[in-house]
Give the backbone structure.
Amino acid sequence: MAPGSPPSLSGSPAAGGWAAEVHMIPDPAASRRPPPQNRPRVLVLAAACHPEKPSDFAAGWGWVRQIARFAEVVALCGAWDREGVERYLATRGDLSGVRFVFVEEGPLERLLRRRRPLFELNYLAHHLWQRRAFRVAARLFREHPFDLVHHVTRNGFREPGFLWRLPAPFVWGPVGGTQNYPWRFLGLAGLRGGMKEAVRSVLNRLQLHLSPRVRRAARRAAVLLAANSQVQRDVARVCGRVPLLLLDTGVEEVAREILPRPAPPPLRLLWSGVFKPHKALPLLLHALQGLAPHLWELVILGSGPEERRWRELARSLGLAGNCRWLGWLPREEAAGWYDWAHLLVFTSLRDTSGNVVLEALSRGMPVLCLDHQGAGDMVTPECGVKIPVTTPGKVIAGLRGALAHLSDNPHRLRSLSRGALARAREFLWNRQGEALAASYEEVLRRQGKGGKEEGPET
């Protein structure tokens, strides 16, 4: 059966409220599959889940696909991803074992997203959507109970959702978002950016320590996953339990061999990301100011609100002739620049992980990054260079020294390239899925031995 417009739920229980906010795509392959037998039924909350978008959308899609390898999945997603998911199913075939349920935003959530001068309004919009999603989840559970429920994206700790209230083992994570912008670097963000990062850091700390819902979700979780070691430490300190460490994303494939690249100089550098203060491109620009122009060239992918300020900084530092600003490119075109570059420079001062880091490693490109948060976990001495996060001046000097060293040592670059491919294989989606499956199996094994979940909390 070719996918088409999903049926409304007007014939379902409580249709008056439910049908207005939910759209479903059935799993047409279900009738062709053998009985699930030992495959558990899992309700997956993936507020971001899209086969064509980057970042947490790609992560949500990857996790849903992986969970469907070993479970029957109902994926509860945001209606904003419906068109992309339906297009994928129509052109590439059904995603076996998955039924998608799309939860609409209400009028207030849409208004908050359109008019959000402060990020707190976006957070409020997401919180309201999570309440809608929980009402749908509870109805689905009453119709046909699930063996597990899993909140997989979006997974900043500040919004744990409400699935933990359902009477089934609750999996939360990989959780991120506890990391903050380093205080010593606020001047680098500009006045507006610095104020926003400072406010965010204060609110982050308060919510981590004071939110009863965060503590309840962490306590209720049969499996608690942290996306990086910083989050793992933060949650362990505040919630009294140590989460398992599991990166929040993965990579679909890894190059078989290193692509031939001409030896430097010039050292070909790639920077990719949204132009927001926490991505901290100025750290790299200041580092390059101290290097001779013939030693390097830089391609910059992305765009965002800081573009004018960062372009002006590059001009004022005398770097404009060596920088190419290409904006956002289609995935296939961007991949060509990953193959062109010798080195990805990832300067982020606040990130749970970094999909661009995995993309670079998977193509045999070493990474120069800051030694903290997710990038600090992902990059090893065998596949990149990490700069300690101390002061802006010391970080800039460290970046400059690393760039000069690599420009003069092509053999070191080739060694790091081999290490990049090896490291990327550790994060293949199939391996990520197997790690998650092991956690699921342990929970279900405990349940099979007579463990009984407590009833839903209110």
